[in-house]
Design brief:
Helices cover 46% and strands 12% of the residues. With 240 residues, the protein is of the alpha/beta class. The two termini are 30 Å apart.
Length: 240
């Protein structure tokens, strides 16, 4: 397990319940975790403007703010600490909160299912407020593809910054898989990557590169990138 890929409690409010109920359930879960972990609660919101009407619309959130809990927004440096309540997050900022070393537990108060459910599936987050929705990817990864992505992750996925050389490695590895007849589902690849040690930013690059390959768009040639012929073992893992 990499330092950014830690095991801690995660939850999300299921889509479809009233927004006031969702924030109340998220705060309740966070307070329970804070007591169990001996940690503080913090709020992570898109912006200060999103908190202007919480007294009426989200009283549980307002009560936390009245208690003086730490409030950070997407404009701030870092997503908070301790037990983090991510209010109405998009996928990018939710994953940033998940990777933050000071996060001890994380609950997403869902606004857009599209922004939350892929993270929930990849990280095994617990649903609150209703039964677990169907969050399976549209196409399950072939075991060969999953093994190849795990191997590629050792070279690429855990690095803080994936430069052009690493992006080329992604492209070469995915091209090997495609040429061997394996389907490249960008969403399924992304979900698998963030659930298996890849940093969020690199998993997003993996999704983008897969989309480009599927669209037939030109990926920069590999010859100038110093990428090994087997693309970090991808070639070796593909039956030939």
């Amino acid at each position: 397990m990499f330092d950014h890929d830690r095991d801690f409690p995660r939850a999300y409010t299921v889509p479809g319940i009233p927004h006031k109920a969702a924030s109340t359930l998220g705060v309740k879960w966070a307070l329970e975790q804070a007591e169990a972990l001996g940690s503080a609660v913090s709020l992570y919101a898109p912006g200060k403007q999103n908190l202007q009407h919480v007294a009426q619309d989200h009283p549980a959130v307002h009560a936390l703010m009245q208690r003086g809990v730490r409030v950070t927004t997407w404009r701030d440096f870092g997503p908070g600490s301790g037990v983090v309540v991510a209010l109405w997050p998009d996928e990018r900022h939710l994953l940033e909160a998940d990777e933050c070393g000071s996060t001890r537990a994380l609950v997403a108060v869902t606004w857009s299912p599209r922004q939350t459910l892929e993270w929930a599936r990849a990280k095994g987050a617990v649903p609150i407020g209703g039964p677990r929705p169907d969050i399976s990817p549209t196409r399950r990864l072939d075991p060969v593809v999953a093994e190849a992505i795990d191997g590629l992750g050792i070279l690429v996925g855990q690095h803080k910054t994936a430069d052009q050389r690493y992006r080329a490695a992604m492209a070469k590895g995915l091209t090997i898989l495609r040429d061997a007849g394996y389907a490249l589902d960008p969403r399924a690849l992304h979900t698998h990557a963030i659930g298996n040690g890849w940093r969020a930013s690199n998993a997003e690059k993996l999704r983008e590169v897969a989309s480009r390959i599927n669209e037939g768009r030109v990926i920069r040639l590999f010859a100038d990138e110093g990428v090994a012929d087997d693309a970090a073992g991808v070639g070796a893992s593909v039956p030939g």
